[in-house]
Amino acid sequence: MHDAAVIGGGVVGCAVALALARRGADTVLLEAEDELARGASGTNSGILHTGFDSSPGELETRLILRSAELRDPVLDALGVPVIRCGATLRPRDEAEHAKVAALARTAAANGVAVELDPDGTLDVPGEAVTDPVAYTRALAAAAETCGAEVHRAAPVTAIHRTAGGLAVEGVECRVAVNCAGLFADDIARLAGDDSFEIYPRKGEFFVFEGSLDRILLPVPDERTKGVLVFPTVDGHVVAGPTAIDQTDKRDRSVRPAALAEIRAKVDAMLPGLGEPVHAYAGLRPAGRGINYRIGRSPACPELVNVAAIRSTGLTASLGIAEHVAQILGLSTHEVPLPTLSRATSGPWWAS
After folding, report:
1. Domain count, the chain
2. How far apart are CA 319 and CA 19, in angstroms?
3. Would you call the peptide bond into 256 cis, given omega within 30 degrees of 0 as the criterion?
4. Do the Cβ atoms of 116 and 102 come closer than 8 Å?
5. How far apart are CA 23 and CA 17, in angstroms?
6. Quick count: other Cβ atoms within 10 Å of Cβ 128?
């Protein structure tokens, strides 16, 4: 019997598998697709946020800030590519000046270093970009090196209680950790838990030829961080995402109108991008009235839900993993991180 079965091979699931394996737990990871990071983890911006704009005191914010403390040794040991380029946010009118000033105060409350220029421009030197597919796969490879099993093409369609814990698709374990992203509510229902609902929020991106030395951020609104422009580790420029709420958890098509919508917002930050060379869309797992639902299931205590990690899963993954290990009462002692060769995935935005 395994100590833990982690359901979902995105960045959060792979980070959890690594954290549990490093603490001595006999861990198996079950990924439904034939490769890791095929969901939201492989179709996002790749930006590692500092949490400068996150609401102080919330669980999401605490885990983002904790991840920032944990991340550099992990990136270095696992050979994950990263561009430590920083970000700039430039207001366009008086209303946006006030919002940016408020963001600077939020950053101070969160202990994140920023610089507010006299013209109202906010510089966030700690923002960075990675290859999210390479990062996810490196976490999984490190977990395997630490003794975890990683099973691809292993969808979970049944969860049953047993005398010793759970049988997850026939894999016996003392506890299961539900990191299934868009399908986390479906997994929870297999264990009799209907306490939350996940819906997809589509984010469309366009890839351009060119270079950029910083992330360009818009002034966010109450619903979304907005459309941003950022460099990639393979030397392209990406603009996006949109934020389209939908019901189909598998529709990752890019709408015909998306490019014009993004251009209208991007031209003010970086005009003259030319024609895109690629487009892609990701589906963020948004919670219906909830955010960062992490804890034991009220219907099945042997199941730990890690759900509604809407848009900061890449950034917060290491803090989330540590938090799950604490929920499970595992030792705080970790075996050293393995040293891996440089992680690559090709053009991650085309994965």
Report:
1. 1
2. 10
3. no
4. no
5. 10
6. 23
Q: What are the residue ranges of helices labelled H in 203-312?
A: 258-266
- Please write the tens of the pLDDT for every residue from 5-59: 999 999 999 999 999 999 999 999 999 999 999 999 999 999 999 999 999 999 9
What are 91's two structure tokens?
A: 């207001």
Q: Report how far residue 300's alpha carbon sits from residue 201's, in angstroms, rounded to the nearest whole number.
A: 28
The answer to whether 5 touches 26, Cβ cutoff 8 Å, is: no
Smallest Cα–Cα separation from 156: which of 141, 140, 146, 171?
Answer: 171
pLDDT tens for 308-337 read 998 899 999 999 999 999 999 998 899 999
How many whole angstroms separate alpha carbon 171 and alpha carbon 7? 11
Cβ neighbours of residue 293 closer than 8 Å, sequence gap 6 or more? 196, 287, 305, 306, 307, 308
Cβ–Cβ < 8 Å for 148, 17: yes
CA distance linking residue 40 with residue 314, whole number of Å:
9
Domain containing residue 119: 2-350
Residue 18 to residue 342: CA distance in whole angstroms: 18
What is the helix (H) or strand (E) element at residue 80, kind and residue range?
none
Those residues whose C-beta lies under 8 Å from the C-beta of residue 288, and which sit 6 or more positions away, are 196, 197, 198, 199
- Are 311 and 48 a contacting pair, CB within 8 Å? no
Residue 200 sits in a domain whose CATH number is 3.50.50.60
Residue 236's pLDDT band (cuts 50, 70, 90):
very high
Neighbours of 140 (CB within 10 A): 24
Distance between CA atoms of residues 72 and 52, nearest Å: 18
**Model pTM score:** 0.96
